[in-house]
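Field log, afternoon session.

UNIT: design team B
ACTIVITY: writing a sequence onto a fixed backbone
BACKBONE:
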């Protein structure tokens, strides 16, 4: 039988009395844990593991939970950049020191988190979160579309319409968004004979391959990368390599680089 502190750890470090009860923790065991110091009562009906994340403890003291981009990051979704202040969600909607508060019913569902992100963040940042949630099966596109029925949210409906579950990474999503905003046509996961699938194909001419943090993690990965690169050359598909840092720090420079490459290869045809 797991201890109260073990149950709390499994629930993320902070939980309500109701959540603990649903996990099989009795009131007697809970009070015993508090008396022994293995559990902390941080607010009425809210308990924390002594080593819980300070942000979660701060939220729990105010009867709030992680929300929006902070909840998305905790869920492993594609977050472009971490906010300066944690984003929380609370039914009361009152200000919480040092935090951005979203008024919302709790507990939040993955769909709630995605909708908060789309409404709160810049379009690119909201899109990456929503696209990764759809890709990972946490939400369904039809259900997401239904959450934006109002005419005043036309822009958000249009952003949701741009979600492509076949996107392979946050880098692909960011690159596609930036290029589409610049007026280019971008295809995803295009099959190239002898190579496999190219991450992106711009205007039917220029390929783009993305380099993630774990790129070339082994000698075999390095050799496979060279083989793929050579295959694009043989097939006549000039290809650029891009990184997350490039898109984050120099988005305009990335678009200009792609446009220069397109101009060069159009002239050569």
């Amino acid at each position: 039988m797991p201890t109260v502190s073990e149950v709390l750890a499994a629930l993320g470090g902070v939980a309500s009395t109701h959540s603990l009860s649903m996990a099989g923790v009795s009131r007697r065991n809970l009070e015993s844990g508090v008396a022994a110091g293995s559990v902390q009562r941080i607010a009425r009906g809210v308990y924390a593991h002594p080593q819980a994340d300070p942000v979660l403890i701060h939220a729990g003291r105010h009867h709030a939970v992680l929300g929006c981009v902070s909840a998305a990051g905790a869920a492993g979704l594609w977050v472009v950049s971490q906010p300066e202040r944690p984003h929380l969600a609370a039914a009361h909607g009152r200000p919480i020191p040092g935090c951005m508060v979203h008024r919302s019913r709790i507990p939040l569902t993955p769909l709630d988190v995605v909708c908060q992100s789309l409404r709160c963040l810049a379009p690119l940042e909201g899109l990456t979160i929503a696209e990764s949630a759809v890709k990972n099966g946490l939400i369904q596109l039809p259900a997401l579309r239904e959450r934006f029925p109002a005419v005043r949210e036309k822009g958000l409906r249009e952003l949701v319409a741009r979600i492509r579950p076949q996107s392979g990474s946050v880098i692909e999503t960011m690159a596609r968004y930036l290029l589409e905003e610049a007026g280019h046509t971008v295809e995803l996961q295009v099959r190239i004979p002898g190579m496999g699938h190219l991450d992106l194909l711009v205007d039917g001419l220029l390929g783009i391959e993305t380099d993630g943090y774990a790129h070339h993690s082994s000698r075999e990965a390095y050799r496979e990368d060279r083989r793929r690169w050579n295959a694009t050359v043989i097939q006549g598909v000039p290809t650029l390599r891009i990184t997350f840092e490039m898109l984050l720090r120099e988005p305009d420079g990335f678009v200009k680089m792609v446009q220069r490459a397109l101009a060069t290869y159009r002239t050569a045809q």
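LOG NOTE: The first strand starts at residue 14 and ends at 16.
NEXT ACTIVITY: expression trials, pending approval
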